[in-house]
Amino acid sequence: MKTEIFSMAINNRNKVKFLYNMTEIMLDPYFISRERSGKKVIYGRTFNSSEIKKFEYDKISNIKVLQQVKFSPIIPIVVN
After folding, report:
1. Which of 17, 18, 37, 69 has its CA 20 to 30 A from that of 10?
2. How confident is the model at residue 71, as a pLDDT?
3. Which pTM does this prediction carry?
4. Phi/psi at 12 (5° precision)
5. How many angstroms from the chain centroid is the CA of residue 15?
């Protein structure tokens, strides 16, 4: 379910908002990956930052796609 939500947001370039360890995060989602340990993660640029950060799926809850808010990536987005 999280993968479908994030994939849709990446393809449509929608910002997302979610809770990460009980902290609210607003993110421009860039890509989804899996770590060597097998944990799924999403990478993106956080609000008012130029830094790309990694967020582990198992610590993410209450995902909201902000349909009216689009972003322009600072790195190319590759869709397979």
Report:
1. 37
2. 72
3. 0.82
4. -95, 0
5. 8
Contacts of 4 (CB under 8 A, 6+ apart): none
- Third-level CATH fold of 2-68: SH3 type barrels. (2.30.30)
**Phi, psi torsion values for 5, nearest 5 degrees:** -65, -50
Sheet hosting strand 14-20, strand order edge to edge: 52-56, 40-46, 23-34, 14-20, 60-70
**In sequence order, which ranges of the chain are alpha helices (DSSP H)?**
2-12
| Segments making up each domain of the chain, as ranges | 2-68
Q: According to the model, what pLDDT value does residue 73 have?
A: 64
- What phi and psi values does residue 44 have, to the nearest 5 degrees? -175, 175
| Distance in angstroms (rounded) separating the CA atoms of residues 71 and 22 | 24
What is the distance of C-alpha 41 from the center of its chain? 9
